[in-house]
Amino acid sequence: MEEFNIADFKPVEFSDKNVLLPWILRFNPMSCEYNFANLYCWSDVFQIKWMITNGRLWIFNGRLNSLGFPLGRSISFDELFHISEQMRAANYSGNIIQVPVEYVQKYKTIKHYFHLKIDEPNTEYIYSVKKLLELPGRKLHRKKNLINQFLRNHPHWLCKPMQINHFEQCLSLTDFWCEIKVCDKIAFGQEMLALGKTFRKFDELEQSGLVLFTEGEMVAFSIFDRLNRNTADIHFEKYNPTIKGAAQII
Question: Which residues pair with 149 in a beta bridge?
Fold first, then answer.
């Protein structure tokens, strides 16, 4: 069995990109928890650390006191349980997050050793590009109506790629969004910290973005990059809540 030592983990730094990004893309993950820009920009908030050992990438979330399911070489249940026990012996929770459903189905005895829980508040959602383009059916009818309202009310709207000169406007819009939404100030401050790190390394992190304008005013923006071979990861998206349809347009 592999000996696992939390002391071997290191904080995520920008210089780790050349190691982590090729590794991540090689294994085609479906979770934003394995996106390098996400790991780097939120590393201070969540005290994120990483380690590659025995053909596997491990991510430790210090704020959640939890170890992410490894990316890379397959791991048996005996190995996973042994590592969890080592973490517990070192005064960590031993919790494993991001465990694939297929893994739980394969190792049916896992329920005798772990308490299994679906983390509903933090589940990820996936948009279909085809559905976003066509907005078919009754379920998406309201979204289509809001888009049509926006187009009628703002016929001269403009959407273009994000550039460095848009950053200050993005921050101002984010502040306004929080003010109107009466958002959680602590969580918002953490998001602003991550957004600031994104802007400072925007090009180097290979980020893409869109900005939406009406009458010369920015009313929405989106920041994203590649997650895997066929999926993009949206990191930040904000809009002017007083402009109907701005959220749906972006």
Answer: none
